Amino acid sequence: MRRTSPEVNAGSMADIAFLLLIFFLVTTTIDKDKGIARQLPPENHIGVIYDIKQKNLLSIIVNENNELLVNNEILPITALKDRAISFIDNGGYPKGVEGYCDYCNGDREITSSDNPQKAVIALTPDRLTEYGTYIKVQNEITAAYNTLRDIASKERFNFVFTEIDRAVKEGAYKGDLVKIKEQLKKTRKMYPMIISEAETKKELRL
User: Is 60 helix (H, G, I), strand (E, B) or coil?
Assistant: First the structure.
């Protein structure tokens, strides 16, 4: 008598595999990449020249030894935030002149930036600058803008910009969303983050 070997019915295996695939797609979380939020400058069309006064430009050069040269002066990274704040918030335009900054709390030196809307920070890292140093410099610059925005929002709207901005982005803000977004927009306009990353230098020594 001939025996037949038992067979396994594999007809539903494809359905099971398909259901497992759907399950993993639904339950898997995908990490979001995080980076430095920066707004790119507008396209520079041929023949267009952007005229920036030297006093409205804060030059930050980072050499291959991770040393900072800020407007031709050697500066430690720990002092960069305060240096950036004094530059951005200077308010050099005299009172009564168009562009005068009535909310600036700086020294109002005529040799420094005229207005936060005109203050440009030019960052030039060397090709051999360490990535960690570059990030530290970016963080200090960002901290300078956030500090000024916190002060401005506290004085004008009675809230801390960085806290409310984070709550709005995370969807945790419980108040009038339309109103708070408009106030955040006005605060950013008071201190716009204008950062230019110039072409890197091959030779740079302090």
Answer: strand
Domain residue extents for the chain:
54-197
For residues 77 and 84, what is the distance between their CA atoms, to the nearest angstrom? 11
Could you tell me which residues come within 8 angstroms of residue 171 by beta carbon, excluding any fewer than 6 positions away? none
Place of tokens 């030019």: 122
pTM for the whole structure: 0.74
Under 8 Å between Cβ of 180 and 126: no
Query: What are the DSSP E strand ranges found in 44-112?
Result: 57-62, 68-70, 73-75
pLDDT tens-digit map of 147-165: 999 999 999 999 999 999 9
Find the angle CA(69)-CA(74)-CA(75) to the nearest 5 degrees.
90
- Alpha helices (H) along the chain: 13-27, 80-88, 131-157, 161-169, 177-190
